[in-house]
Amino acid sequence: MCGIVGYAGSRPATPILVRALRDLEYRGYDSAGIAILGSADGEGVEITKRVGKIANLESALDASPGSEATTGIGHTRWATHGRPSDLNAHPHTSCGGEVVVIHNGIVENYAALRSALIARGHAFASETDTETIAHLLEERTKSGLSLLESLRLTIAELEGSHAIVAMSPSEPGAIVAARVGNAGGVVIGYGEGEMLVASDLAAILPHTQQVAFLAGLQLARVDRSGASFINGDGSAAAVEPRRVPIDPVSALKGQYEHFMLKEIMEQPEALSDTIRSLVTLEPAGVHLDDLGPISERLSEVRRVILIGMGTSLHAAMVGRAFIERLAGVPAETDNASEFRYRDPVIGAGTLVVSVSQSGETVDVLEAMAVAKAKGAMQVTICNTEGAQTTRVADGTVYTRAGLERGVASTKCFTTAMVALYALALRLGEANGHLGPGQLGDHIQDLARLPDAAARVLQDHAPYKTLANHFYDARHFLFLGRGLAFPVAMEGALKLKEISYIHAEGYAAGEMKHGPIALIDRGFPTVAVAPAHALRSKLISNVEQIQARGGEVLAIASEGDQEVAALANHAVFIPAVSEFVEPFVATLPLQCLSYYIALRRGCDVDQPRNLAKTVTVE
Ligand code: M6R
Fold first, then answer.
1. Are 359 and 404 in contact (CB under 8 A)?
2. Cα of 82 to ligand 1 centre, how many Å?
3. What spacing in Å lies between the alpha carbon of 612 and ligand 1's midpoint?
4. Which residues of 435-495 form beta strands (DSSP E)?
């Protein structure tokens, strides 16, 4: 889940690489580094790398003489093998300095490769698995092979999934790249007299929207005049560039202090864009244009398995309820990292729905590969045009949230739920579970959602006050029932990931079976208790907590004085339909986490140990 970029053109490479690393920093920020071909003296490779965030790399670059070199590669690291340090930072080079490499993935057999290389006389400078790739490449380029051919032969020796980019002074102006498996994508950007290579679109879009994606076992060689592609067996690969429709301006933070706040505030618009792209009001209809062959097969669906990780798994849990209730089809959710290893039973009529905002999460991709091998129909919910999941699934329901940069997912959670709502409606329509009148009512409900979301986000004063009150709590319990249960899980995840406060999300009914032992004044509970979410049952849970001296913050529907009177604090959300409640109940929890993290002085957009896209196991 590291960020990778390469530039071959006619402009100085260093500022382009550094800017790209800023755009990729969300993928990892344990260290950052660049290598340029042609040092300040005009020869060889010059590597600058520093542990920590990009700012450290920038300071180091400021202190060294500027270079006009026009070819280079850069990397921002999320550490796997080897602790974060200057030495372990990428790029890595071989002992002879013949080759320089950046890498995303894990060389699973690196220990054996390293021992063999040492036995052949190689000396290692770092503790990383990546350095083995540089040494293996150097052995081959020294024997006279081209860099691309050396890379092709080297990847055959590596176990695991990888994205690898390399360059060599022996091939000035050129960069080679390989993608092996699902560890991470490789995108090639076509500029005017310049080419880029990157792990994802964020680094490319400021320069060009004309891009090509490498598939599972493909390699590319780029120089300023263009790109050529081969497959792992050495044959020519047909990889065609295409234009991707993402506005680079949306990547900016704008008026907001943090991407997370910006993205929270963008939700009314993101919801509206997603809803408008999937449904029409008059006549009432659901239009899932990217479903492909699945649109004709929806009536065959007898069982749905929804998979995802983290926030996307929570969206999947809401989707499960939508599908059961609206389409009458048995549905279950599974953590993709469990699903991929448990040899799941997939009979005829099974539809696997994967949820992934990035479309690059390795566990989701591997779970999809398992589902595919077992013959499941597959639909993916994704926010990234052309992402890997969309190329594996039979059909896609795209969310229209725009780029999400904060590591903590916000707008991609709520828009994924919209996509799942639309998919459930379409399934219910196709199998006759849902009558035309009901479909119209649900679409009307959805149409009211952006406005309700905007109302929740209008006034941040209550969240700031609550943050001031709760910021030094050490633990939190989040409770919900029915559709509010995944919302509670998501509330707990948001809080723990950005504020480092321990938080647990529980089905409220489970509380009496253990968690209640934890309750005391210093262990506050957030009760997600809107009007429809088995409210009366949840009220009993709140009473039980109160009876044990616990402090309760309730998320309640407008005008619900009974819940407000029981709780110590209440945040009201607009009264909306049952299926729209999870959306509006989520927003106060996102705001609460944000302001608590802010009050605690945490790095909201780049929480420690995390990365936006998890492309390693
Ligand atoms: O890109 P994905 O939706 O597949 O990412 C899955 C999780 O890594 C992600 O949802 C993660 O849990 C969130 N960033 C947490 O806010």
1. no
2. 24
3. 7
4. 475-480
Nearest-CA residue for atom 5 of ligand 1: 356
The model's pTM: 0.75
Bond preceding residue 206 cis, omega within 30 of 0: no
Q: Give CA–CA dist 567/562, Å, rounded.
A: 9
Show the low-confidence residues of the chain (pLDDT under 70): 1, 39-43, 65-66, 182-184, 245-255, 534, 616-617
| 309 CA from centroid of ligand 1 (Å) | 6
What is the whole-number distance in angstroms between the Cα of residue 178 and the centre of ligand 1?
Answer: 25
Question: What does the pLDDT read at residue 245?
Answer: 67
Distance CA 485, CA 356 (A): 20
Quick: pLDDT tens for 530-571: 988 767 777 888 888 888 888 999 999 998 998 888 899 999
Give the DSSP per-residue string, 250-315: GGS-TT-SSHHHHHHHTHHHHHHHHHHHHEETTTTEE--TT-GGGGGTGGG--EEEEEE-HHHHHH
Q: What's the helix, strand, coil split of the chain in %, to 5?
A: 40, 20, 40
For 85, list phi and psi in degrees, rounded to 5: -160, 165
Ligand 1 atom nearest residue 313's Cα: 10
Distance 609 CA to ligand 1 centre (A): 14
Buried b / exposed e along 482-494 (16+ C-beta atoms within 10 A): bbbbbbbbbbbbb
Question: What angle, 0 to 180 degrees and rounded to 10, lies between the N-to-C axes of helices 310-327 and 411-430?
Answer: 30
Which structure tokens are listed for 113? 């490769």
* CB of residue 497 inside a 6 A radius of ligand 1: yes
Rounded to 5°, the CA angle 100-359-90 comes to 20
CA-proximal residue: ligand 1, atom 1 (nearest): 358
At 249 the pLDDT is 47
Number of H helices, E strands in the chain: 18, 26
C-alpha span between 7 and 281 (Å, rounded)? 46
Ligand 1, atom 7: closest residue by C-alpha: 310
Query: Cβ(613) to ligand 1 under 6 A?
Result: yes
For the stretch 307-341, pLDDT in tens is 999 999 999 999 999 999 999 999 999 999 999 88
Q: Is 388 in the pocket of ligand 1 (CB under 6 A)?
A: no
- Nearest-atom number in ligand 1 for the CA of 613 is 1
Estimate to the nearest angstrom the gap between the alpha carbon of 309 and the chain centroid.
9
Ligand 1 centre distance from Cα of residue 214 (Å): 23
Residues taking part in catalysis? 2, 612
Amino acid letter, residue 571 = V
Q: Which two structure tokens, joined as six digits, stand for 42?
A: 């005009």
Pocket probe for ligand 1: among 340, 353, 361, the residue whose CB has the most ligand atoms within 8 Å is 361
* Mutational pocket test of ligand 1: of 1, 258, 309, 594, the residue with most ligand atoms within 8 Å of the beta carbon: 309
Q: Nearest 5°: CA angle at 162, between 158 and 166? A: 90
How far is 573 from 495, CA to CA, in rounded Å?
Answer: 19
